[in-house]
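Much of what follows relies on a compact textual record of a protein's fold. With that in mind, consider the following protein and its fold in token form.
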Amino acid sequence: MKAKLEKKSGYISYNTDGLNIKFHKDPFAVEIVKDQTSIIGNRIIEGQGFYFKRKKVEKKEYLDTFKGYDFDNGCLKLELLSNNNTKVKLNVSKKMDYVVNFSFESILAKDKDEISSFAADWEIKEKDHFYGFGERFGKIDKKGEKVDLWVKNGSYPGATYKPIPFFMSPRGYGMMINTNHRCICKMGEIDDANKYSIINMDSKLEINFIYGPEMKDILDRYLEIVGKPSSPPKYFFGPWKSRDWKVENQESVYEDLNIQRELDISGTIKLIDAGWETEYHTFKFDGNKYPDYKKMINDASKKGYKIILWISPWIMSGTEAFKIAKEKEFFIKKEDGSVYVNKLGNSPTLRGSVLDFTKPEVVKWWQDNLREVMELGIVGFKTDFGEQVPVDAVFDNGKSGEEMHNIFPELYNRLTWEVVKEKDGILFARSAWHGSQKYPGIWAGDQAPGFAPWSGLPSVISAGLSAGMSGFPYWASDIGGYFGKPSKEVFIRWAQFGAFSPIMQIHGKGEHDPWNFDSETLIIYKNYAQLHMRLLSYIDKYSKRAAETGEPIMKALPFAYQGDKKVHELECAQYEYLFGEEILVAPIYYGGNYKKVYLPKGEWIDWWTGTEYDGCQEIEYIASLKRIPLFIKKGSIIPLLPTGIETILPVDSKNIKNEVDKLIYEIYPSEEATFSLDEGHTIEVNKNQKQIEIKINNPGLKEMELNIIDGLDKEIKSFSGCNIVDIGKAYPAVSEVDSDKVVHEGFKIIISPQKEDIKIILESEGK
């Protein structure tokens, strides 16, 4: 729909896609209306909705009125005047359906040079809450908080490796701040709770207003602008194993590979962290630590593992690699032309210089080396750091460190991804900015091994949910936290959360090997890693959906149920999420086993006990150390891999169980349910008081196991298109984690398809 303009008394109206954008003349203000309902506006601020500040001047200049306008081919141009008579132009245009671009900029060049920040104030309405802003370690709702959009080496409330200048409100709109500069968003702080402010540290302000009204549509439209992620290969989602980089060597790599297989622990990826090279960065394996690395990589493959390696975008000073790179002028510089040496990592002694990726010679050197490493059989890279660009540095493209600081992570990961995607490989990034969503996936960085809300398990749950609502669906955290050895309880609760994260990863400094805790911890970890592996087809399905729509695999309740007032207000609901569509996860993120759980709209089944609950209520729940509170949406169908599976990758040993040619579905019957996999397999279930009818399309004619988790005894009334191989009792997949206490059960049918179309009717006995 092309935009139209209407002139009214006291304002003009820009209309597109049913959005009515009113520009009031005196005082100047903007209001956006949809279906006669005000969505956002700044009219209540009496003309003080847009303002800027000059360098070395404390007083703000407000845009006071507009003098004139021009409308041509759907684009509106307004000439605005500040209360100090500074002329500003505002361009308004439709960017795409339901997305309108607002761009403010001073008309005179001298004013552009003098303006240090440009800002907008908007009214906060009753049902406003604010989600997104990148990976965030505090509350996921940023209402009442100040958000600093600046890339930092930090994982605590107020700091993040992955700030994203985008947010959404459940009132049906989102805003993308189109900037690479530092931006401060004051989202209704206590001193002024009736408005939020977007303050861009630049001489201009550009905002894309995005209408949904569903938040999933807002996120989808935002990602249409900055880019959607690619779906990683399926093995990417199997359990990962890493170690403390200070002790990792060839012997410890083999220990991880062998012990996991000896103990039947599921896993598909071995990550080798920092210190694998002779120096940072020669891209050559250290022969003292890895005397036969080629055989090691080959042996990992035989056991059903892929290996990825750690890298960083800098070189440590005092090394031969630094000397060579300095001679080639590969580094960022100071204003005087000398190499900019600064602190790089967490240690004050780690100093060096950041690589200048705006220089073509550096890009070629970087990518050539990555390709050479991948030729060894390495499938990808963990791109650590990216937050170390000093604001006063100078890049080869002429931009300052201040201009490059936020966009450097996107550049660093893009150049790496260009190589990795050539081999359908893996990228695993710590830092990010606008556009980084295109390069899967990310992890939450470095946390403390505990339950502290600002640095432990609660903080990473928030991080995963906020990252998902910012366009990063492929996410992980370090099980047990990064810094030091976690307690048994922390490790287990974090492992349970990790099992219901897109990527389940053990990593950290200090002891994190599950076999070096007590036997109970090992068994619990092993069982949750197995459960995560069995859910791989389920995760992969939602991975592919994420690539199409940007919809997160971990869906925060405010995202999935935005119209439910309680999901925005209850503290427990802020730490719950849908894993895919069918599984509600309520992690325990503190000591003890008591948990308040909010169940949203629908009917929910406790995956452990079979107890059924109506939605829209808060319940009290007790979960032993073996259990994470899990609820299945009634009517769900969940695909599973076979019991005992260790990897989905090829192996050279019959003792290692990998994927077999069999489909397994766990079915929770309701009146109607359907599920489909990309291979063309679909299953439809209908239930009434008397019987359950199952229709299957099985184009590959694979053997199938159907586990109908229903409390009533069943008998097969009729079947067609298949042979019945076996029948018996079925238990939910979680029974493998706590088999002695899982009480609800169902009816198991194993069938051998004879035709693509299969139909089975079950009846309750005695009916």
The radius of gyration is 28 Å. The longest strand covers residues 60-72. The chain is about 20% helix and 35% strand. Residues 519-534 form the longest helix (16 residues).
